[in-house]
Amino acid sequence: MQRRFNTTGPCTPDRHYMLSSVARLPDVEEMFDADAYFVVHAPRQTGKTTAMKALAESLRQGGRKVHTSPVASAVGALARCRHGRL
Questions:
Q1: What separation in angstroms does the CA of 37 have from each of 16, 31, 53, 56?
Q2: I need a labelling partner for 24 at 20 to 30 A (CA). Which of 18, 31, 57, 84 fits?
Q3: How far apart are CA 7 and CA 32, in angstroms?
Q4: What are the beta bridge partners of residue 16?
Q5: Looking at residue 70, what is its pLDDT?
Q6: Cβ proximity of 65 and 81 under 8 Å
Q7: How confident is the model at residue 80 (pLDDT cuts 50, 70, 90)?
Q8: Cα 28 from Cα 39, distance rounded (Å)
Q9: HSE, side-chain direction, 13 A CA sphere, residue 38
């Protein structure tokens, strides 16, 4: 499938042109490991959901169990997972 620009929802690297989410949030995984809280606040359609999905995948690849919920509670789900409350 040919890649395209996406403006309607979360992006996936094999289907859409996009910047690396991990590169855009370089300190988030360290904050996660330190049990620190973080907030992702930005206007709509700027990559918040895509970034959280990339973070979850990065954590999974690092051997962690991660559960993600619908967009509205994705960050809360990551926090609950970190503290073993799933």
A1: 30, 7, 17, 15
A2: 84
A3: 29
A4: 4
A5: 59
A6: yes
A7: low
A8: 10
A9: 22
Q: Please work out, in degrees rounded to the nearest 5, the angle formed at the alpha carbon of residue 69 by the alpha carbons of 65 and 72.
A: 135
Question: Quick check: 25 and 51 in contact, CB under 8 A?
Answer: yes
Return the domain boundaries, the chain: 21-82
Q: Is the dihedral of CA 55, 60, 62, 65 positive or negative?
A: positive
Q: Tell me, yes or no, if the pTM score tops 0.90.
A: no
d(CA 15, CA 40): 24
Length of the chain: 86
4 phi/psi in degrees, rounded to 5: -145, 170
Tokens of 33: 């490991």
